[in-house]
Write a structure and sequence with these properties.
The model has no long low-confidence stretch (mean pLDDT 94). The relative contact order is 0.14. The two termini are 25 Å apart. A hairpin with a 6-residue loop joins strand 8 and strand 9. This protein is globular. The chain is α+β, with helices and mostly antiparallel strands. The chain is built from six helices and ten strands; from the N terminus they run E-E-H-E-E-E-H-H-E-E-H-E-E-H-E-H. The protein binds iron/sulfur cluster (SF4) (2 copies) and FE2/S2 (inorganic) cluster (FES). One iron/sulfur cluster binds next to helix 4.
Length: 235
């Protein structure tokens, strides 16, 4: 099939048919923020950080969920987009208790990096400060719901890469939480294989390995894509 030609930030770009706009943007060397997207996992368009403007469309579109098409004219960094992105990151910080100073992922956290990227200096919203539990019933890992941004990367990694679907999401709005099996302590899960892929996929300090100091905490979410690639080559 013929390549698609589109314009991204005034540059003519070629893209493969079936490619997402996010892939085309990245291949063009342009950096836009993402949070729920993780190479190797399916996309769900949940965080809205990758929103872009497409000429002729009034609504902003998430680049990770939009396919390239011939003649598309895209803008990735207008003042309107920058304002929305900063607002989204501020709302994420306001929704739970992201106190970076006492977080196992500080200095190694995608949310923290995003805050710097979008120029967040303070949060303009009231903190909801919900009382979220910490579950350390699993012998190898823990989950601190205070740090969870509901990106569902753990849910997709466990389902799509490990194939057991231990994680899911229960509740709505501010009550939404990731849960294991039938909303029971993680340590009592009968499906979890303790593979650690959910922890690799997690962008924040929400899922953490037990018995590891802050500085030692591995944060290598790109390993999910490497696993997918290695499997493709073997099978
Ligand atoms: S450790 Fe592996 S099997 Fe257990 S919840 Fe995480 S991804 Fe799923
Ligand atoms: S636990 Fe981590 S990976 Fe799972 S939804 Fe929360 S932030 Fe995302
Ligand atoms: S990365 Fe596209 S909506 Fe989250």
């Amino acid at each position: 099939m013929a390549a698609k030609t589109l314009t991204i930030d005034d540059h003519l770009v070629s893209a493969r048919p079936g490619e997402t706009l996010l892939e085309a943007i990245r291949e063009a060397g342009i950096v836009i923020p993402t949070l729920c997207h993780l190479d190797g996992l399916s996309d769900v368009g949940a965080c809205r950080l990758c929103l872009v403007e497409i000429e002729g469309q009034r609504r902003l579109q998430p680049a990770c969920m939009t396919m390239v098409s011939e003649g598309m004219v895209v803008r990735t960094s207008t003042p309107r987009l920058q304002a929305y992105r900063r607002q989204i990151v501020e709302l994420l910080f306001a929704e739970r208790n992201h106190v970076c100073a006492v977080c196992v992922a500080s200095g190694n956290c995608e949310l923290q990096r995003l805050a710097v990227m979008v120029g967040m200096e303070h949060v303009r919203y009231d903190y909801l400060s919900p009382d979220c539990p910490v579950d350390i019933s699993h012998p190898r890992f823990g989950i601190d719901h205070n740090r969870c941004v509901l990106c569902t990367r753990c849910v997709r990694a466990c389902d799509e890469i490990e194939g057991v679907h231990t994680w899911d999401v229960a509740g709505r709005g501010v009550q939404a939480r990731v849960i294991t099996d039938m909303n029971q302590p993680w340590g009592t899960s009968t499906t979890c294989t303790s593979c650690g892929k959910c922890q690799l996929a997690c962008p924040t300090g929400a899922i953490f390995p037990r018995g590891v100091t802050v500085g030692e905490r591995p944060h290598a979410s790109e390993r999910i894509a490497l696993i997918v690639e290695a499997r493709k080559q073997r099978w």
